Amino acid sequence: MNNLAVHQTIADHETVQAAEIHDREFRLFAELMHSRVGVFLSPAKKDLVRGRLLKRLRHYRLASFKEYFDIVTDKDFPQEMQILVDLLTTNETYFFREEKHFDCLRETVIPELERNGTLRIWSAASSTGEEAYSLAMLLADQIGYSRLWTILGTDINSHVLECAQRAHYPVDAAKKIPRSYLQRYCLKGIGDYEGMLTMDESLRKRVQFKPLNLNGPWSGIGQFDVIFLRNVMIYFDVPTKRKLVARMYQALKPGGYFFVGHSESLHGINEKLTMVQPSVYRRVC
User: Which of 21, 163, 206, 275 is the right S-S partner for 50, CB 3.0 to 4.6 Å?
Assistant: First the structure.
């Protein structure tokens, strides 16, 4: 590469790094995320949006966020909308997060619902899969494999779904997994996978992952005995929450249980679901 080309590359990089996202540009992305996936981006998220999208400006060698918005909304770049969603959605999760929910499943929900013969659970924002596999370990322990139970994990972020399907996790991620579960349901990586763990094949067969936009169509998803929708609604405004929970109610079998995050509540959102304990609700009829 000659000196002029090097100079030009450095100049391009510095131009992108210096790019500011103006209020009107931020509003374009905020409105797009709200209309497509229901996520509400407050003005306080402006710096976060700028930081996460700079890599796409570098990729296309753009000088402004408006130019990138035009690409995202261009029908000739259908994959870019998914990339935008992947960049602007948060996917914090870990095994057996909010342990009281798993205690409730073990002590109350499973003993009651397993009498129905089959058990379907939906991890409705499964991220990289730790929640879905935590549920699977609990069900395998409490019910075994002789009874029919399945778990569906969905997420709008394609990258985290790929991680969930691979089911490869750093050994450090196992800190919250009970020791007996580690011994029975987890495999330690060797060779190229040293320092990693994965789920036992029998467990993985009971868990399916698929992409799904919670604010889009749910074609053929069916009904569930238990739905986990935890730490998701904090990103939605009240009208979006009401619509989403109304749809969740329809996807829940009569007598089924609905779990939200410990910091979340359905107060003022849905009156049809009855609170069993804080952050745990039930469709009575």
Answer: 21
pLDDT at res. 151: 98
Other beta carbons within 10 Å of 78: 8
Query: How far is the C-alpha of 202 from the C-alpha of 136, rounded, in Å?
Result: 10
- Quote the CA–CA distance of 192 and 177 in Å, as a whole number: 23
What pTM was computed for the model? 0.82
Q: All domains of the chain, ordered by start, with CATH?
A: 3-88 (1.10.155.10), 99-282 (3.40.50.150)
Q: Which residues pair with 275 in a beta bridge?
A: 281
Nearest to 238 by CA among 268, 217, 259: 268
Q: What DSSP letter does each residue of 88-130 carry, written as one string? A: HS-----TT-SHHHHHHIIIIIHHHHGGGSEEEEEETT-TTSH
Query: Mean pLDDT of all residues in the chain?
Result: 90
Q: Is the pLDDT of residue 65 over 80?
A: yes
40 pLDDT band (50/70/90 cuts)? confident
Helices 65-72, 23-37: axis angle to 10 degrees equals 20
Q: What is the DSSP pairing of strand 224-228 with strand 252-259? A: parallel
- Asked whether the predicted pLDDT for residue 5 surpasses 70, the reply is no
Q: In what order do the strands lie in the sheet with 168-170?
A: 168-170, 196-199, 186-188
In percent, the amount of the chain with pLDDT more than 90 equals 70
Cβ–Cβ contacts within 10 Å for residue 252, how many? 22
Beta 186-188 vs 196-199: how paired, if at all? antiparallel
Question: Which residues have a catalytic role annotated?
Answer: 52, 155
Contact present, 94 and 130 (Cβ < 8 Å): yes
Could you report the per-residue pLDDT of 154-207, keeping only the tens digit for each?
Answer: 998 888 999 999 999 999 999 999 999 999 999 998 888 899 999 999 999 999
The secondary structure of residue 142, as a DSSP letter, is H
The residue count for the chain: 285
